[in-house]
């Protein structure tokens, strides 16, 4: 048996667009994901999240599921366009009321809310009128929206996450066009990423200047990173793997913890990689009270042969703009895979944590997402017997435990992705990550084996 530190935070996560539904209810404005999903050909079978889990109308029931598991914390996101239908300007009080009900219900059940301000659902008006993340002014608009959230919810919310996985917004949204707003470019990912960091920096500055002393909460960002394992132990492959991680996580974490993009990126991306103004640099440096990590999988990395073409290994990208980082990815056919084809590599989770610990001077870390999609789970009978998910979660938690006890990593919490089966972005409803099965016709929720196993782990603070 492996016991976790005393105050270890056991959580589960969701995101507004993936679970809420009620896309036109009570004054919610459209987001870029509504527009994207409603565009033919962008999502699996044209699926949209107009209804999805209908969490908007199942709020009390969903909090009861969390309570039944003994969840210590619940990570959810606020839909910017539910509060500000146009992204700026007048406030939709019905949207504020919905999140007040959710926050109050969580607290009444002893569950700590961890709130993400931006999980990819940019108000459509800001895309149409300003070009969204490509316009430097987006940072001010985000800071104003963030301030509204601190004002209205900060008396009860003490854990803030500015952005979820800016890498996805940059690479998948503006590089490969796989996510909203569906742009394809080798320049725009770097511009979007730069503005995302500026958005984060501004929002944190507002929180620290006006709210933190009184509200006494913490604020940070969560970045995603898939581990890169050197394919061989040659220096060339080790360097390639390191570079792969710098292009993936260093891109977003180095400016926050070290003051600029990694040297390897400056050298390869050249003039397409923006410079920080002195003001932005200072605002972004040190702007995270904790290190949020979303981690799922790993690949081998190797140095390309002199004449070898650099290809995208997967439609979801290879951890940076492939053309720029010059890292060849591959995988071991022996590795087990999830329903998304992602490798199940728990050992890599421990290495990932150690890498962050070493590179960023031992920050407090929270794994804010980890989980897996499994096949056949549209059938509730199959979903209830998800022992493979239980095994996945146990193996990653074992790796996390080793990172804490053997490597001295300051890991303080772990959030499963996800509480519920939900709208899996471009894959629509075809991929299921939930601890609870959702019947998308009836809205019925059913706990899977993994939900019961997780409840026992929480109860015992151990696996
Ligand atoms: C997260 O992103 C999101 O925050 C969440 O909304 C989403 O539902 C959840 O994960 C599940 O997808 O093709 O083998 O190269 C995950 C970020 C980035 C992780 C791409 C896997 C590709 C693996 N993902 N990465 S591979």
Characteristic key phrases:
463 residues; alpha/beta; TIM Barrel; eight-stranded parallel β-barrel; three-stranded mixed β-sheet; 17 helices; binds ligand GBH
3D architecture notes:
The protein has 463 residues and is an alpha/beta fold. It has a single domain (9-460), classed as Glycosidases (TIM Barrel, Alpha-Beta Barrel), CATH 3.20.20. Helix content is 42%, strand content 14%. It is built from 17 helices and 13 strands. The strands form three sheets. The protein has an eight-stranded parallel barrel, surrounded by five helices. A three-stranded mixed beta sheet has the order 6-8-9. Strands 12-13 form a two-stranded antiparallel ribbon. A hairpin with a 6-residue loop joins strand 12 and strand 13. Helix 7 (138-153) packs parallel to helix 9 (188-215) and helix 8 (166-174) packs antiparallel against helix 9. It starts with 8 loop residues before the first strand and ends with a helix. The mean pLDDT is 96. Ligand GBH is lined by residues 15, 18, 164-165, 168, 224, 226, 294, 296-297, 314, 316, 342, 369, 417, 424, 433. Ligand GBH binds at residues 15, 18, 164-165, 168, 224, 226, 294, 296-297, 314, 316, 342, 369, 417, 424, 433.
């Amino acid at each position: 048996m492996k016991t976790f530190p005393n105050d270890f935070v056991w959580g589960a996560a969701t995101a507004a667009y993936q679970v809420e539904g009620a896309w036109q209810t009570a004054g919610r404005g459209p987001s870029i994901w509504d527009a994207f999903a409603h565009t033919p050909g962008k999502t699996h079978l044209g699926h949209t999240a107009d209804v999805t889990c209908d969490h908007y109308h199942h709020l009390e029931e969903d909090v009861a599921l969390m309570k039944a598991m003994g969840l210590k914390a619940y990570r959810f996101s606020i839909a910017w366009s539910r509060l500000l239908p146009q992204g700026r300007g007048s406030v939709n009080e019905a949207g504020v009321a919905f999140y007040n009900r959710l926050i109050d219900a969580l607290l009444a059940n002893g569950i700590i809310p961890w709130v993400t301000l931006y999980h990819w659902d940019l108000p459509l008006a800001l895309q149409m009128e300003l070009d969204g993340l490509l316009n430097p002014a987006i940072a001010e608009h985000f800071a104003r929206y963030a301030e509204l959230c601190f004002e209205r919810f900060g008396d009860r919310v003490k854990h803030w996450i500015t952005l979820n996985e800016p890498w996805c917004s940059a690479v998948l949204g503006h590089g490969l066009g796989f996510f909203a707003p569906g742009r394809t470019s080798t320049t725009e990912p770097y511009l979007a990423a730069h503005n995302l960091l500026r958005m984060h920096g501004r929002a944190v500055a507002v929180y620290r200047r006006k709210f933190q002393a009184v509200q006494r909460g913490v604020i940070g960002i969560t970045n995603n990173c898939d581990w890169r394992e050197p394919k061989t132990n040659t220096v060339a492959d080790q360097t390639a793997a390191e570079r792969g991680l710098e292009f993936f996580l260093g891109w977003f974490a180095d400016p926050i913890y070290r003051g600029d993009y990694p040297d390897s990126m400056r050298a390869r991306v050249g003039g397409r990689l923006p410079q920080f103004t002195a003001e932005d640099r200072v605002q972004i440096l040190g702007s995270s009270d904790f290190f949020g990590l979303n981690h799922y999988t790993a690949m081998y990395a190797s140095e390309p042969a002199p004449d070898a073409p650099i290809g995208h290994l997967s439609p979801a990208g290879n951890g940076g703009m492939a053309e720029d980082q010059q890292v060849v990815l591959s995988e071991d056919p022996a590795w087990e895979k999830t329903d998304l084809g992602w490798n199940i590599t728990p050992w890599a989770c421990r290495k990932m944590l150690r890498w962050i610990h070493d590179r960023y001077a031992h920050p407090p870390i929270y794994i804010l997402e980890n989980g897996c999609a499994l096949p056949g789970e549209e059938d509730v009978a199959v979903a209830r017997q998800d022992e493979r998910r239980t095994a996945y979660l146990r193996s990653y938690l074992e790796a996390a435990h080793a990172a804490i006890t053997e490597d001295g990593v300051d890991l303080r919490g772990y959030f499963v992705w996800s509480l519920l089966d939900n709208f899996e972005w471009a894959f629509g409803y075809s991929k299921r990550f939930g601890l609870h099965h959702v019947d998308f016709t009836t809205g019925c929720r059913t706990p899977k084996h993994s939900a019961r196993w997780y409840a026992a782990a929480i109860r015992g603070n151990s696996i």
